[in-house]
Structures are given as C-alpha cells and as structure tokens.
TrEMBL record:
GO biological process annotation, one example: protoporphyrinogen IX biosynthetic process
Reaction catalysis annotation: protoporphyrinogen IX + 3 O2 = protoporphyrin IX + 3 H2O2
Gene name for this UniProt entry: HEM14
UniProt GO cellular component terms: mitochondrial inner membrane
Predominant subcellular localization, coarse grouping: mitochondrion
Top-tier EC class: oxidoreductase
Keyword set includes Calcium: no
Organism: Steccherinum ochraceum
Family of the protein in this entry: Belongs to the protoporphyrinogen/coproporphyrinogen oxidase family. Protoporphyrinogen oxidase subfamily.
Record protein name field: Protoporphyrinogen oxidase
Residues of the Amine oxidase domain: 16-377
Cofactor(s) the protein requires to work: FAD
Keyword list, A-Z: FAD, Flavoprotein, Heme biosynthesis, Oxidoreductase, Porphyrin biosynthesis
EC number per UniProt: 1.3.3.4
C-alpha cells in the first residue's frame, strides 16, 4: 500500500492539509468541490479522489459541483477548524450530536439491523421503497394517489386563495397548499409565465448516465479482484488520446456479485457462480451520446483493459444497456444561495403566500435520506 500510487497521492495530501491553515475569505460564499479540495489537499488529490468521488455520487464534473451543497460537512469543517480542515473534521467528529431530528425518526430496529452494513439492496430493486410508501399511503382515508397523469398548469385567481391544478388528462384539483417535488424547470413550465419560480433554472443542470449490466458465465479464473468496484477519476488535462480511449467515458464499475452476493440466488452452495458487474458511463464525459453508440465489443474492451484478467473475458450471457437522461441533478456553485432566494420569494410573494413549497433531489440533496428529510420539513410554517 505504502508504495502504491494511491498512497503516494493520499499521504502527502493529508499531511499537507494537517499542516496548512487556509481560512475561506468572508466574501467567498461557495466554491466548486475541485477548487475547495485543491486548496486543502492539492490539485492531484482533487483530480483523482475528488473527481472520482463526485463521479460515484453525482456523475458530474467536480469543477462545477458546489462544495457547500454536495459536501456541507467539509465546508463546515473548514469553518470550524478556522481554515485547518483536518482540525475541523476532528472537532466535528468529537462534537456530541445535538440533532433533535435524530430522536424523532421512527426507526424500529433498523439501527441494530444496519450495524456494520455499508451497503444494502432490495431483492426486487429500489422500487420496493416506493411500493411500500404507496401501500402505506393508500391505507389513509385522506390520501388519494393519482397515477399516469401529470400537472399541466398551476394557477390561482387573484380573487381566490385556492390553487387550481389542471392535469394533462383534463382533471382539475383545487388545493389550499401545494408541495412540488418535480424539477424547478418542470415547475416553471406549469406556473403562470408572469411569475416564474426562478430566473436561474438554467443553472440547475442534470447528469445523464449510461448504465450497463453485464453477466459473465462461471469461469475458472476470477474476472475481477474482490471488492466493491472502482471509480474512474477525471483524465489529466494533458492526457493522451490513447489514455482517454482506455476509459472512453467510464465513470465507474460496481462488482455486483461481490458487493451484494445475497442478490444472486443459486440452487445450492456448490452451484457455479456467475459474475455480475455494472459499468456506468457518461455524466460529464462526451461518450456515450446514446445507448445505440455503446457497442458490446467496445464495452468489453474497456472492461478488459481496466481489469486485466489472467485470461480473456468470456462472452457475457447477458448485457443490458440503459441510458438514463437527466437522472441526477447537479447542484452547481451557488446552488444553496439560489434555492434560499427562491424559497424566500415563494414566502414573500403576494401570489404564492408561502403556500407553495419546493422539495426534491434538485432542491435539497440527491440522496434518498435527503429527500425524506425535506419532506419532513414541509408545511412546518403553514
Ligand atoms: C445512475 C448512476 C448513479 C450514480 N450515482 C447515483 C446514481 C443514481 C446516485 C448516488 N450514488 C451514491 C449516492 C450517495 C448515497 C448516500 O449518500 O446516501 C447517490 C445519491 C453512492 C453510490 N454510488 C455507487 C454506489 C454503489 C453507491 C453506494 C455506496 C454507498 O453509499 O456506500 C456506484 C456509482 N454510482 C454512479 C457511478 C458512476 C458509480 C460507479 C461505481 C453514479
């Protein structure tokens, strides 16, 4: 490890940050993740670790992503440590948690169940969460779920306090309060053009990712080393074409059969094991523009160069390619301030009177827990 290129970047970067104090100037309200990490840990650390981490969560360019929105604890650590980020991280870790919300979540025995768990999945996929939510909500007499329809316009007459939502199928819904979980761009398209929700929606971009699931037949040699998978950092700015071709827009690869072996059901313990991997491509990279441009040979060529297995990769028994357009919002630099301004406008506006709230991955954080937390705070001032 000590002689690996990982350690050669990591150890000096952490030492440098431990010894260095770099208070953020008062006039700087936000920075990109890349600028922030470069200041404390050096440019090479920011390019390798920083960009790879950002690829794994946001599939975005760390030079555009807001550090305050994406990694608020790092920003807080820098403030708390008075410019020494390592001191700030240690102080944050030692600080007793006074988050009252921790105590008000009904967690059942979930905390015990999750002890030592770093990643979990559902046998029937992530849809399990939304299906369970739906089943629970349908039991409540005051909840109606309308599926297969979309809001086409959101209006209110000047003389009336009730909002009118018209759907694409012609349904009319009257509402005293509205919570919007659609993107701000989509919301802007349905509100009266004279009162746009925000004039800065163009700064709220999204990432598109091509997800490739590959299943290899049982082999006598390991297709990949044991582990969770790997993330690919942003190429050096002076990277040669051949180096770029090696990755061809790959953001990372998950070794599914290793990370989540419980997902694979076999007849018995002696059954030969298949190997499942998931490649993710695209995001800030130009390649691939669409699912059709991803040829099987090209994908397997990239994977083979990365994994360098002891024997050629066998022909997969299954390859599925899905191109997910605009699947992850990118909170760019200044995101928190822009969202605060929008929320303030909604509160102060004669038209909205604080009765329209905005939530969702493009507003207050992209993870499932972030979205749950936003939902919990909705309507507290109504
Ligand atoms: C379509 C590709 C996606 C990539 N990231 C996300 C999607 C939907 C969203 C996402 N990924 C992670 C998080 C953080 C979760 C949290 O903080 O609660 C979010 C919102 C982390 C993550 N990324 C990958 C895995 C397996 C995990 C879970 C790890 C963990 O939390 O311990 C893999 C991965 N995701 C993407 C890439 C390119 C990638 C590559 C290995 C993009």
């Amino acid at each position: 490890m000590a002689s690996s290129s990982l350690a050669r970047t990591l150890v000096p970067a952490v030492l440098r940050a431990t010894l260095r104090s770099r208070p953020i100037p008062d006039e700087v309200a936000d920075q990109s993740v890349d600028t922030f990490l470069s200041a404390y840990f050096g440019a090479e650390f920011a390019r390798t670790f920083g960009s790879a981490l950002v690829h794994g969560i946001y599939a975005a360019d760390s030079r555009q992503l807001s550090v305050r929105a994406a990694f608020p604890s790092l920003w807080d650590a820098s403030i708390r440590g008075k410019g020494n980020i390592v001191r700030g991280i240690v102080q944050n870790a030692l600080r007793p948690s006074n988050n009252l919300d921790d105590k008000t979540y009904e967690m059942g025995n979930m905390m015990d169940k999750m002890k030592g768990v770093s990643v979990y999945s559902f046998q029937d996929g992530m849809e399990t969460i939304t299906r369970a939510l739906r089943q629970d909500l349908e039991k409540r007499h005051n909840v109606e779920i309308i599926a297969g329809d979309a809001a086409a316009s959101l209006r209110r007459d000047a003389s009336d306090t009730t909002f009118k939502i018209d759907t694409v199928t012609g349904r009319r819904i009257d509402a005293s309060h509205v919570v919007s979980a659609i993107s701000l761009k989509a919301l802007n398209n349905i509100v009266p053009p004279s009162i746009p929700i925000t004039s800065t929606t163009s700064q709220n971009s999204t990432s598109s990712v091509t997800v490739v699931n590959i299943v290899f037949p049982p082999t006598s040699f390991p297709i990949h080393p044991p582990g969770f998978g790997y993330l690919v950092p942003r190429p050096r700015s002076n990277a040669l074409d051949a180096e770029l071709e090696d990755h061809a827009g790959t953001l990372g690869v998950v070794f599914d059969s290793c990370a989540l072996p419980q997902q694979d059901l076999y007849a018995n313990a002696a059954s030969p094991r298949f190997t499942k991997v998931t490649m993710m491509l695209g995001g800030p990279h130009a390649f691939p523009h669409n699912a059709e441009s991803v040829s099987e040979d090209k994908l397997l060529g990239i994977l083979s160069r990365h994994l360098a297995p002891s024997q050629p990769l066998p022909k997969p028994v299954l390859i599925r390619v899905h191109h997910l357009t605009g699947c992850i919002p990118t909170p760019t630099v200044g995101h928190l301030q822009r969202i605060a301004a929008v929320k303030n406008d909604l509160k102060k506006s004669e038209f909205w009177r604080g009765n329209l709230e905005i939530v969702g991955a493009g507003v207050g954080g992209v993870s499932v827990p972030d979205c749950i937390e936003q939902g919990r705070h909705v309507g507290l001032n109504w």
